[in-house]
Amino acid sequence: MTKKIIFATLAVFLAWGILDFFIHNMMLGKAYQATAMLWRPMQEMKMGLMYLVTLLSALVFVTIYARLVYPKNIARGLGFGLLFGVGTGISMGYGTYSVQPIPYFMALAWFLGTTIEATVAGLITGLIVTEEPEKATE
Asked: CA 138, CA 109: separation in Å to the nearest integer?
């Protein structure tokens, strides 16, 4: 099971990196430029820390699924990912919107993006982390 957790964690990390590029650079790039006063300048961003946070988040996501979700299959993975995504997306998008002067479009994109990313992560995890076959006892 440990190999499956490691493989799924790396796959989720990669998927989140690709999706983050499209969400934050392609969709929200202009919104970030328009609200530049809210963010660190690019040269001051701590990208190493961001990658570490993303990797650890992927590990926690996969480990929660591996230890707590039964039965382990694609449908359960998708359901887990969707529920996880809505829960974290509300906090990410609308929690931030409630206390920080970001445009509504950004809050909505963060909510939907987080929900989509977690759902994709659930699909990946459901495909990789499957039930161990029972060994026959003699």
From this structure: 56
The model's pLDDT over 66-121, given as tens digits with 9 standing for 90+, comes to 999 999 999 999 999 999 999 999 999 999 999 999 999 999 999 999 999 999 99
Are 78 and 120 in contact by the 8 Å Cβ rule? The answer is no
DSSP structure string for 23-61:
IIIIITHHHHHHTGGGS--GGG--HHHHHHHHHHHHHHH
CA angle, 77 then 82 then 85, to 5°: 120
Contacts of 38 by beta carbon, 8 Å cutoff, 6+ apart: 100, 101, 102
Q: Model's pTM, two decimal places?
A: 0.91
DSSP 100: S
Instruction: Give the domain ranges of the chain.
Output: 2-36+46-128
Indicate the burial class of 78 (C-beta count within 10 angstroms; 0-12, 13-18, 19 or more): middle
pLDDT at 137 over 90: no
